[in-house]
């Protein structure tokens, strides 16, 4: 039996160099963000300089699979899913930690003008 698929349309606010054609893709519900990033990179002919992308539908961020996203949106696989994509931004790396003594053990306020 063939895997269930969902119709997906990709949209973005990124510059034109990162915009894919207005095409509806028929994708397996098991598709992950990594697979979708590969699809976007392939559509943009960017395999040599592949970039990861983040995906969301409305306020829901795609973290696992399209199937899980459909469930969280209470949609069936027959619906056409519009996925917004943006460049994936890694969290900043901490280069060096500031060495500050922990001389403040606790702060307590008694009324609006007294701190202990």
TrEMBL record:
Residue ranges of every copy of the NLE domain listed in the record: 6-69
Top-level taxon of the source organism: Eukaryota
Protein keywords: Repeat, WD repeat
Lineage start: Eukaryota, Metamonada, Carpediemonas-like organisms, Kipferlia
Annotated GO CC locations: nucleus
InterPro entries: NLE (IPR012972)
Name by which UniProt lists this protein: NLE domain-containing protein
Localization: Nucleus
Pfam families on file: NLE (PF08154)
């Amino acid at each position: 039996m063939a895997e269930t698929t969902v119709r997906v349309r990709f949209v973005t606010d990124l510059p034109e160099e990162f915009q894919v054609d207005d095409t509806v893709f028929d994708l397996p519900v098991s598709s992950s963000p990594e697979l979708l990033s590969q699809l976007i990179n392939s559509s943009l002919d960017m395999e040599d300089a592949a970039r990861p992308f983040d995906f969301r539908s409305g306020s829901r961020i795609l973290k696992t699979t399209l199937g899980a996203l459909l469930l969280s949106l209470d949609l069936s696989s027959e619906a056409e899913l519009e996925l917004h994509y943006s460049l994936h931004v890694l969290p900043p790396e901490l280069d060096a930690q500031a060495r500050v003594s922990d001389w403040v053990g606790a702060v307590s306020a008694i009324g609006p003008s007294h701190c202990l």
